[in-house]
Amino acid sequence: MILHHSSFYDxxxxxxxxxxxxxFGFVQQISGNMRNAIGALVVFFVxxxxxxxxxxxxxxxxTVMA
Length: 66
Prior knowledge:
Blueprint: H1 8-31, H2 34-65
Helix pairs in contact: 1-2
């Protein structure tokens, strides 16, 4: 029996796939328009970039203080 140990990033990737596909389908079903569903995914990307930017700025400020 082969055991595969999943890392945190593997689990996070799978969760992101499920959430992205679900939100796309949900928004498309509710609105009846695929453009709105794509807009929902764009919101996820924008929030991700903002989170990345804030994290990088925090790391830079901690590096300068140290």
